[in-house]
Amino acid sequence: MPGTPPTRFVYLGPEGTFAEQALRTVPAAERGTRTPARSVGEALDSVRVGEADAALVPLENSIGGAVGVTLDEMAEGEPLVITREVVLPVEFVLGARPGTTLDDIRSVAAHPQASTQCRNWLRGHLPDAVVVDVLSNGAAAGGVASGEYDAAVCAPIGAARHRLAVLADKIADHPDAVTRFALVSRPGPPPPPTGDDLTSLAVYIAHDRVGALLSVLMELAVRGVNLTRIESRPTGEALGRYVFFLDCTGHVADVRLGEALQGLRRVCADVRFLGSYPRHRFSGAAGDRPVPAPAGLSDADYADAAAWLARLRAGAQP
Amino acid sequence: MPGTPPTRFVYLGPEGTFAEQALRTVPAAERGTRTPARSVGEALDSVRVGEADAALVPLENSIGGAVGVTLDEMAEGEPLVITREVVLPVEFVLGARPGTTLDDIRSVAAHPQASTQCRNWLRGHLPDAVVVDVLSNGAAAGGVASGEYDAAVCAPIGAARHRLAVLADKIADHPDAVTRFALVSRPGPPPPPTGDDLTSLAVYIAHDRVGALLSVLMELAVRGVNLTRIESRPTGEALGRYVFFLDCTGHVADVRLGEALQGLRRVCADVRFLGSYPRHRFSGAAGDRPVPAPAGLSDADYADAAAWLARLRAGAQP
Amino acid sequence: MPGTPPTRFVYLGPEGTFAEQALRTVPAAERGTRTPARSVGEALDSVRVGEADAALVPLENSIGGAVGVTLDEMAEGEPLVITREVVLPVEFVLGARPGTTLDDIRSVAAHPQASTQCRNWLRGHLPDAVVVDVLSNGAAAGGVASGEYDAAVCAPIGAARHRLAVLADKIADHPDAVTRFALVSRPGPPPPPTGDDLTSLAVYIAHDRVGALLSVLMELAVRGVNLTRIESRPTGEALGRYVFFLDCTGHVADVRLGEALQGLRRVCADVRFLGSYPRHRFSGAAGDRPVPAPAGLSDADYADAAAWLARLRAGAQP
Amino acid sequence: MPGTPPTRFVYLGPEGTFAEQALRTVPAAERGTRTPARSVGEALDSVRVGEADAALVPLENSIGGAVGVTLDEMAEGEPLVITREVVLPVEFVLGARPGTTLDDIRSVAAHPQASTQCRNWLRGHLPDAVVVDVLSNGAAAGGVASGEYDAAVCAPIGAARHRLAVLADKIADHPDAVTRFALVSRPGPPPPPTGDDLTSLAVYIAHDRVGALLSVLMELAVRGVNLTRIESRPTGEALGRYVFFLDCTGHVADVRLGEALQGLRRVCADVRFLGSYPRHRFSGAAGDRPVPAPAGLSDADYADAAAWLARLRAGAQP
């Protein structure tokens, strides 16, 4: 039922990973049900078939290499839309059973990309420990709890869930790294504009020519729409057809973004709208401030120009 | 009274020049009054104050160096709009009193730019004749009729009006040269779109930067609007402020030109609309064919994109 | 002989016009011969055939509507180059025989464009005088000296040459209007760069498409080259082939302008180089300051980038 | 030693995955040593420290979610360059111990992204089997060989290495999907141009503005350089600073790509060159044909334009 807040949530599992931690920052999810899914595709399909109301899946950067999968899954099949983004600092911790000290650690369980992100720390503090690949951050914590490994590189929530002691926190080599997640639903009226929104698109162009991409960017630039992300992927169907995933500043309800969207619709082979949603704001933190509309591109400027055109068409100058 | 066809016409005089010849290709002018004006400014002002309904003045290329004057006069003062363009081949003739032969000719009267355009012919056929500057093509013909000069470089209409014999025709060095005239009225509903129209604009940008002009062209290019002419002029008021005179394909009533106009209105310091009018068609001749809307830029494409956007905003995905 | 300073000068006559006044601001011309020519074409041809070393002709704005003629004459025939620009304030005066007062004036001789530029003044101060068209500002002054007219709208130099009293000065409606002249020679090494130069070009593109003009502007923009003037003209040869006259900031010896010129050479149907020369500086006056090279576009930046590329090609990182 | 062909190869392990299969298409690798690495970072570091001569790692699309990791590892630390790309069809097979039939299969081991890519096939042919996540395609095959699972989704090389029978081949949902790998070495002279090369770059811009990205694309477009891939990633260091990974047509030794690279060097915060290498050609297959240089952008056109500029600077027209 449109307008009904979601109550049944799925997320990319297993339990105890960053995805679960991200979901728990969503107030409605705290009150609703939260079910792990085995894959991004499974999570999204459960929304498509109506078994869940919303899915929390990773979009960018990240711990599971899931970016490409999420984009591909969003671009194909029944349409879905992003209604919210959640940006989490990547705060890896070293978890171990209570009583363990660094000197005791002979084996460290970690997802391969987690150990990659903490490589310098592991080399410096545990040069002699064996790093064992496991399938997820949650599985790493679980394997320590069950006694299979001495320590785990995992998310804080994974350590907490498996009652591990945190021997060290913020062990990632880049202290400012973040992971970006999306909350995804079936199509419906987008959340209202906040003045600081993002819109995600999948844009298909027939050829991989710089001219074609220039055309796309010009459609955005002349309306003062900024890109915050662009990623090209070959479509699975055939070589030589490309899809670009774009994140733009603005909301589908904004006049200038609406005009830009219409422009893309006209010049591209296809455009799939992937949602308008508030940009994630870090509480108290610095970072990207919302960018005000450039001179001449506010909704008021659009209204003024439309009124002027109407006068011209009626023959009333100026 | 809006919608009343014009009956009182002025044109850049004197009588017997290309401007009168151009005016006589306008059917309504054949039935109305036709009064010569002493200057472009005088012709336009007589329309502004209501003494005339329409003025025929030169726009481009041409015999009187009047282009800049016309543009400046259109860009300042009370707004006026072009309702029709007339493109005349520049067909200079050599006129003389009946009975004169080439060998008799010792003096040739010509407007300086007319003699310039016929320089090769004059050198080849009348190497020993003295070319005397006069103020207009009409004055050249008149001076021959009164016996002041032996021959005149003039328009066919000038020879006819002064009952001169045409000793040679098409004597201009470039046989395809044309002059372009505009029929100008007070603002009113533009003539209806024909599918092959032009729109003239005066566009002010604050600085002479290539970036500013690029912005203007991008506003046009993303809507598939072509330029057929561009001319920059420093504004009389101060150095460093430029006005661009643009002729674009399309009609103010077209969706895509309307969107482009709104874009210019927003990004430019000022835009003055100078009229939408049918492009001149040469009967039977080759030349610039009308350019169909590029893929994705027809009115139907605009309507489709607008409907798509409306569905997105309503939350209904296709 | 290349390098020899010019000593024989021609200018667009007749004597006593702004062109002569402009020429006399050129030091070498003060020491050389100064001959009036009957037309821009005649002035340029006398340089082409070697009868003169340099010609002073009007380029822009201006009193004789000669702009188009000059451009066309420069774009065709044997190549010529601009070596200097002269920008003169348009300071019209009202000249009369000594002893005449405003109340005595019944007839005013003026070139049509001169009377146009002083229209408001004439209406306000001589509402009842008849304005008589003459062929040049110099002819207006001469006609007053000979007693044919009571007063003349002319250049200060015209009043002085014909010993007229100046009844009023600065009578043009736009006090800041200027006329721009070019000093033109046969091709030779350009004057050395001064750090504040202009380069003039005639650029041919095959079609009047906005895309083609966009390509031209992009070649300039990516090298940070600014336009100070652009004018399109249909070529006399045929419809649908356009030539653009561009004035750009920079000197042909500058690295970035050189790269831009090569780019134009590659993408345009044809490019004719019309000269690099110092920008006119108004003594003490405000106006357009020279624009420093944008970030990354100085000659030093070009040298750095070239060295970096050489290292890459040699396989030496970074 | 520069120029010495590589003999010691590493690849993203474990054994029996697509990366090993890709490496074996490289002739030198067939004759040299081939060592699996536990991660992309480990593979690249072994080249950086000189323990290996070249590393084969996944770049795009792909089975391990490793794209982002490879890009990040290439963009940081000691510079490395790509010397060759290998594009492999993603040909998943279902492997089982000899004698097994489809009806016998209760459990299928698969890397999560492999099972995602074969989802439709698995639903259609093994709707009741349990899919068990494992860490790699090689591990899936190994787990079947050891009797832990009934069947594996794996690469043909994985089935062969573990002596599994192939019960079904080409089971991926998109039959044309490919994975793209890079062979990476320490910096040295690039492989010679072949006329159909790619160049990879990491380009840093200060802000995520569409204007900044437009500037980058314009540097490429004016030199006729096409993009075949673009991907933006936030840099790990801080929010708001972006790195774009670009694959361009052309070779660093080409004149026009060289000019484009210099342009990027000047306008971007930083550019890291990631190698020029022959584009992968599918034997006999259709696909992207090499794109000839656009009109005016061949090396010969560049040489012509440079000679023309030299003539202009010397004062010798035309």
UniProtKB/TrEMBL annotation, chains A, B, C, D:
The record marks T179 as: Essential for prephenate dehydratase activity. PROSITE patterns: ACT, PREPHENATE_DEHYDR_2, PREPHENATE_DEHYDR_3. GO terms for molecular function: prephenate dehydratase activity. Its EC number is 4.2.1.51. GO terms for cellular component: cytoplasm. Keywords: Amino-acid biosynthesis, Aromatic amino acid biosynthesis, Lyase, Phenylalanine biosynthesis. Pathway: Amino-acid biosynthesis; L-phenylalanine biosynthesis; phenylpyruvate from prephenate: step 1/1. This is Prephenate dehydratase. The lineage of its organism: Bacteria, Bacillati, Actinomycetota, Actinomycetes, Micromonosporales. The gene is pheA.
